[in-house]
Design a protein that fits this description.
Layout (H helix, E strand, L loop, with lengths): L13 H15 L4 E6 L8 E10 L2 E13 L2 E7 L1 H4 L6 E2 L2 E2 L3 H19 L6 E4 L5 H7 L13 E5 L7 E2 L20 E2 L2 E3 H8 L2 E4 L2 H6 L10 H6 L4 E3 L27 H13 L6 H5 L2 E8 L5 H6 L10 E8 L1 H13 L4 E5 L3 H10 L2 E4 L9 H7 L3 E5 L2 H6 L7 E3 L4 H15 L2 H13 L4 H17 L3
Parallel strand pairs: 1-4, 7-8, 8-12, 12-13, 14-15, 14-17, 15-16, 17-18, 18-19
Antiparallel strand pairs: 2-3, 3-4, 5-6, 9-11, 10-11
The chain binds adenosine-5'-diphosphate.
Adenosine-5'-diphosphate binds next to strand 14, strand 15 and helix 12.
Length: 472
């Protein structure tokens, strides 16, 4: 497995959660997984095992390999190339990408394949994630096509977010160790540039995305970010596999950040969490406040998450029979919006700007509903946490949200990306909250859902078995 970030080593986003959880989950199914990622600045894990010369584009480098055990059958190999990876950021600093990212991630792919070759036995499959690993499937089809160990190794490529495409100037072509022939529409050429993402999509035997619905959506102009045609061409080999959630980390029966624990059999602890949550946000918690539905939001404050819809309802949300608690950080205009709204309606609306893991757990535990009105959502994790915590999700039916929340059964779902549709759906949810037995049914149905990694890992295994039976 090849990727640019993984827990517990390095994280900027959801990819790290996936690459932290999937290899051990595969291990539980009897597969040996080796994950190769960069040894960024500050990563101390792993013991040194080897150092070999690897050249990319004729530039030689001495590349070290550090090995860290992740679980019984899963190992991480950290690629040590200080010139390329010992830097402030993973992909850039101060919001500017490093100009040599093509070289950095070409080297990651090369190092992973060289490591595999050193083992002397062909891997069953190479699984590459996102554009940073997009050259690995290309190399397998070109540079390593006649390799004594790696020849014929099939690959799987996973798209975690199509908005990130690894686009670079065509000038890079001679410096990446790929033949000129791959600079084509069926290779990695994208409107005159190079796209590592496109290379991965076109060269892998199978392509996956992180939810079935997103797999369909990405084939449409609305969601395809210019890649819908590329993906339609590969539709027969494209599947969506939902991410799992870490069920140890997110469990209302033993969550250390909750003041009381609860389960589907006894939800009493949820009211204790609600009271604590109201207190934490400085909202009233008298009996009438405790009875009023509490709507939570935890989100990066960016356009993707539907915050423009919420902002359009600035005057209408506060007059709903509900309270709101919001946690997030991101674009200043959205941060200011929530700060101002909380200042105007201090008894109904609480906003906390920043990143706060313990508070995120308390919101999942203490809120009655969770709002996620995303414009697009490849998978989404918070709605799955909400289901496990008996916190009924109110979502826009896109991507992973469509796949995990069922209208009227486990939550409330709207289609049109309009403030009116969002408001109407919130009203529907608030009406249902007024019927305690109906509400309890919604909570319990959500709490029954299985979003464990083991289930997702089994689906990946099905793909691995398929491509290794019929390598391309
Ligand atoms: P995305 O990866 O697009 O941000 P996801 O729902 O897939 O969205 O995952 C976001 C993760 O980050 C969740 O685990 C969520 O709880 C967490 N998160 C986002 N913002 C914050 C925050 N301000 N404080 C704590 N956790 C946050």
């Amino acid at each position: 497995m090849i990727g640019s970030e993984a827990l517990p080593f390095a994280k900027t986003g959801g990819l790290a959660d996936v690459l932290g959880a999937l290899p051990p989950a595969l291990g539980r199914l009897g597969w040996d997984a080796t994950l190769v990622l960069p040894r960024y600045r500050g990563v101390r894990d792993g013991v040194f095992v080897d150092r070999i010369p690897i050249s990319v584009g004729g530039q030689p480098a001495k590349v070290g390999f550090f090995e860290a055990r992740v679980s019984d059958r899963a190992t991480a190999i950290l690629v040590d190339a200080p010139d390329l990876f010992d830097r402030d950021g993973l992909y850039g600093s101060e919001h500017v990408d490093y100009p040599d990212n093509p070289r950095r991630f070409a080297l990651l792919a090369r190092a992973a394949l060289e490591w595999a070759a050193l083992r002397g036995t062909r891997p069953t499959v190479v699984h590459a994630h996102d554009w940073q690993s997009g050259l690995a499937p290309v190399y397998l089809k070109t540079l390593y096509a006649g390799h004594p160990v790696l020849s014929g190794t099939p690959s799987v490529f996973t798209i975690h977010n199509l908005a990130y495409q690894g686009l670079f100037s065509a000038d890079w072509m001679p410096r990446l160790d790929v033949p000129a022939s791959v600079f084509s529409q069926e290779g990695l050429e994208f409107w005159g540039q190079i796209s590592f993402l496109k290379g991965g999509i076109n060269a892998a035997e199978a392509i996956t995305t992180v939810s079935p619905r997103y797999a369909e959506e990405t084939q449409t102009p609305e969601f395809g970010c210019g890649f819908d045609g590329v993906l339609r061409r590969r539709a027969a080999d494209l599947v969506g596999i939902l991410n799992g959630v870490d069920v140890d980390e997110w469990d209302p029966q033993r969550d250390p950040y909750l003041p009381a624990h609860y389960s589907a059999a006894d939800l009493a602890g949820k009211a204790v969490a609600k009271s604590e949550l109201l207190l934490r946000f400085g909202l009233a918690r008298d009996p009438s406040a405790m009875k009023r539905p509490l709507i939570g939001m935890i989100s990066r404050m960016v356009d993707q998450k539907g915050l423009d819809l919420v902002a359009a309802l600035a005057d209408r949300l506060p007059v709903l029979p509900a309270s709101f608690v919001v946690l997030g950080a991101g674009e200043p205009k959205y941060q200011d919006f929530w700060r101002r709204l909380a200042a105007r309606f201090p008894d109904r609306i609480g906003a906390r700007i920043g990143f706060d893991e313990p508070l995120a757990h308390l919101i999942e535990g203490g809120a009655d509903m969770f709002l996620m009105p995303s414009r697009f959502e490849p998978c989404g994790l918070n709605q799955m946490y909400s289901l496990r915590y008996g916190t009924v999700p109110v979502v826009r039916g896109v991507g992973g949200l469509f796949d995990t929340v069922r209208e009227g059964a486990t939550g409330f779902v709207f289609d049109q990306y309009t403030p009116e549709a969002l408001l109407e759906t919130l009203r529907r949810a608030l009406a249902a909250f007024g019927n305690p037995s109906k509400w309890r049914e919604l909570q319990l149905e959500g709490m029954k859902q299985d979003h464990s990694w083991d289930r997702s890992a089994r689906e990946y295994v099905t793909i691995y078995e398929k491509v290794s039976r019929n390598p391309g």
